[in-house]
Amino acid sequence: MPRSSDKRERLVDSAKTLIHKQGFNQTSLADIAYDSGVPLGNVYYYFKTKEDIASAVISEHDEGIKDLMRGFEETEPDPRKRLVLFLDFANEMREIAAKYGCPVGSLCQELDKNRSALSDKIDAVLIFQLEWVTEQFVQMGKPQANALGQKLIASLSGTNLLANALNDPHVVEVQIKQLKEWVVAL
């Protein structure tokens, strides 16, 4: 029999997947309960509202991104190569991006329509990525690091959006290749 913490993890994992595939507004607590195998009545033991479970999902995204960036920093001393690693990761996610969009970007777009604490929380995840990328340009000694960081994140976000609209992972592959060439040439 699964432990109760396993149920919470299963609920968050299911919510993360369903919200990415269907969107926050289209995902019900009943959908999450069913997908996770946790009875609907038990969901309320862990999460009082759908917003509470969405907050947990956003925290998972935040922790995942921060762990990824820390890993790049621990394994690669060169900030230019860390940016290439970041882009390689985005390329690895191209099938998912083409099918469902970027999990963070899609949630930002949906939640920002009704400004709330949740929209601020998911925006902070994207802003962290922007700040991290910008810091890599700073460490490279680039005088317009902020503009370069914005260009890279905006290009990546647009790439994921276009790949999703066309349902074509090749779009990500081509654009990431060009972004990597740009970063290396700077």
Mean pLDDT: 94
Our estimate of the beta-strand percent is: under 5%
Q: What is the structural class? A: mainly alpha
Radius of gyration: 18 Å
| Poorly predicted regions | none
Write the CATH architecture name of the largest domain.
Answer: Orthogonal Bundle
Distance between the termini: 55 Å
SSE order: HHHHHHHHHH
Helical element count? 10
Morphology call: elongated
Please tell me the total number of domains.
2
What does the main sheet amount to?
Answer: none
CATH superfamily of the largest domain: Tetracycline Repressor, domain 2
Q: State the CATH class of the largest domain.
A: Mainly Alpha
**CATH topology-level name of the largest domain:** Tetracycline Repressor, domain 2
Account of the protein in words:
The N and C termini lie far apart (55 Å). Helix 5 runs antiparallel to helix 10. 32% of the residues are buried. The protein has two domains: 1-48, Homeodomain-like (Arc Repressor Mutant, subunit A); 59-185, Tetracycline Repressor, domain 2 (Orthogonal Bundle). It is mainly α and 186 residues long. The chain is 82% helix and 0% strand. It has ten helices and no strands. The model has no long low-confidence stretch (mean pLDDT 94).
Entry keywords:
mainly alpha; Tetracycline Repressor, domain 2; Arc Repressor Mutant, subunit A; single chain; 10 helices
Question: Which secondary structure elements does this structure contain, and how are they paired or packed?
Answer:
Blueprint: H1 4-22, H2 29-36, H3 40-46, H4 50-75, H5 79-92, H6 94-100, H7 103-111, H8 117-139, H9 145-166, H10 169-185
Helix pairs in contact: 1-2, 1-4, 4-5, 4-8, 5-8, 5-10, 6-9, 6-10, 7-8, 8-9, 9-10
